Fold this protein.
Amino acid sequence: MLWLILIVILLVALVVIGYIGFYNGLVRSRNWTDEAWSQIDVQLKRRNDLIPNLVETVKGYAQHEQATLTQVIAKRNQLTQVPSSDHQQKMAASNQLSAALKSIFALSESYPDLKANQQFGQLMTELTTTENKIAYARQLYNSSAVNYNNKIQTFPGNVIAPAHNFQKINYLATPETEKQAPKVSF
């Protein structure tokens, strides 16, 4: 009889330890996903900080391109107004800003003096590097979200997660316009 009680106590202890371990794993996965989003936020801020310098540099060379510069500034300001907790809206605003920045990069082709400007070249390099870091951070976020979502949607997570209010995390999607192949003419 004593052996039976010890076996039951051991089984209960294993279940409790397993439950605690799995719960802690869910918390770690959620925190990794939050940290991955934080990396995106850091890179978006870095890009936002570079934009005023880029705009000032371009202003001197392309004075009649004010509409382009105004659009970039407006998109930057729109991005800074989005709450950090609204990931989908933040990324939508970021995608709009990226599109506006492409138009500034295109200006350099129309203005050879601007293209030759060392400060403009450095700013373009910094922005390109930052855009690459944003893309990498998005991939990291989605990978973290997949890991987290898998844990809460598979057994025993699908039993433990609802009890502790763990919610599915949405992935960052690529806008449909960016998925289309560019049209090239020769």
Notes: Helices lie at 2-61, 66-81, 87-110, 112-116, 118-153, 157-163, 176-179.
